[in-house]
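User: Some background: our group keeps a shared notebook of sequences we're curious about, and every so often someone picks one and asks for a predicted structure to add to the entry. Today it's my turn. The entry only has the sequence so far, pasted here. Could you supply the structure so I can complete it?
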Amino acid sequence: MRVMLLSALAAFGIDQLSKWAVVHKLNLIQIGAIDVLPPLLNFRMGWNTGINFGLFSGYPETMRIVLVALAIVISGFLLWWGNRNLDRSITRIGAGLVIGGALANALDRVIYGAVADFLNMSCCGINNPFTFNVADIFIFAGAFALVIFDKPKDEQAPE
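Assistant: Of course. Here's the predicted structure to add to the notebook entry:
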């Protein structure tokens, strides 16, 4: 459980620190766009009231409450489930990354009314119009670790 909690805390803290640095200290909230290494990395201010790619963003206040509650419930379940079922450090870290990222985005919804997204990456002639944040990276990486490295207890080889 300790590994899960530490990775959740790290993901949460890194995400919130990145948002504070870019959105507030670099003033992206007012400037709107900063080209860092175009087109590979740009900062573009985006407010996501829905889920990925702005899905379900038509009812901001209702969705904000639902998504904050959902993040808390899923994080609690993942912590409970992971503590009972995950034996490998890599999968416990993965679960922690999902929890920390989800709770960081939930905090954004409480503070701002939407998730603060600012990372934009394009490459190879493809212009990506979407923005994301560090919490999204942690959620994706954690889910990837859970899918790739988790094995049912009866299939695991003794370590």
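Suggested note for the entry: The chain has a mean pLDDT of 90. The first strand starts at residue 33 and ends at 37.
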